[in-house]
Amino acid sequence: MSYLEIKPNQVHVWSLPFSHKDRKKVEKAFHEILQHYLPKTSLVFVKNKWGKPSLKGLPLHFNISHSGNLALLAISLNQPLGVDVEKMRKVSVGKIAERYFSKKECEFIQNLPKANQTNSFFTLWTQKEAIVKAKGVGLAGGLSKNPQKVAGYQVEALEVKEGYQASIAVKGKLGSIVYWDPGN
Fold it and tell me: Could you give the residue ranges of the DSSP H alpha helices within 16-158?
């Protein structure tokens, strides 16, 4: 088995096609990818009380997200991280924003031209979800905080295929992002 190396402050983002009927295949592929980072190690998966999976006793951190027909696996060394991807689609921006966003963020989105509201909504949503996933608390951790101002975390947009928005949040400093797409 070949070995993949990841450097400190670096994140690897793997992109795979996804369908709910092939969910188990995608999970298996992600487990095989993780094994390439730790080829001589038996991987034991555990979950925290909010359901975030991790590798027991190992310095490799990972997080998974999927939407539409795209799945992402983000991996880092010694840095908790969260990733979120969302397929762009028509949603009730105002109602969802009022429930999960701060008053200031709602006003910002509502004051944008209608043509820009959905894109801005999904950008902010993926940032917020990436933060709560990095913290390991899920949506129970709240989405009302500005993701750019959460102490100790860095949030960045990811380059993913057209029609999708994605963000990554890393505890500490994010040095670089390396993209892997086995399909291309």
Answer: 23-37, 93-100, 103-110, 114-135
Tokens read off for 152: 């100790």
Distance between CA 171 and CA 64 in Å, rounded? Answer: 16
* DSSP classification of residue 139: G
Q: How far apart are CA 71 and CA 85, in angstroms?
A: 8
CA-to-CA separations, 20 to 27, 30, 120, in angstroms, rounded: 11, 15, 27
pTM for the structure as a whole: 0.91
**Axis crossing angle, helix 103-110 with helix 93-100, rounded to the nearest 10:** 160
How many angstroms separate the Cα of 127 from the Cα of each of 6, 141, 156, 172?
23, 14, 8, 16
Q: Is 108 exposed, middle or buried (0-12, 13-18, 19+ CB in 10 A)?
A: middle
82 HSE (CA, 13 A, CB side): 23
Give residue-wise pLDDT tens across range 117-139: 999 999 999 999 999 999 988 66
**Count of beta carbons in the 10 Å neighbourhood of residue 77:** 17
- Mean pLDDT across the chain: 90
Banded pLDDT at 20 (limits 50, 70, 90): confident
- 102-111 pLDDT per residue, tens: 888 899 999 9
Distance CA 146, CA 131 (A): 10
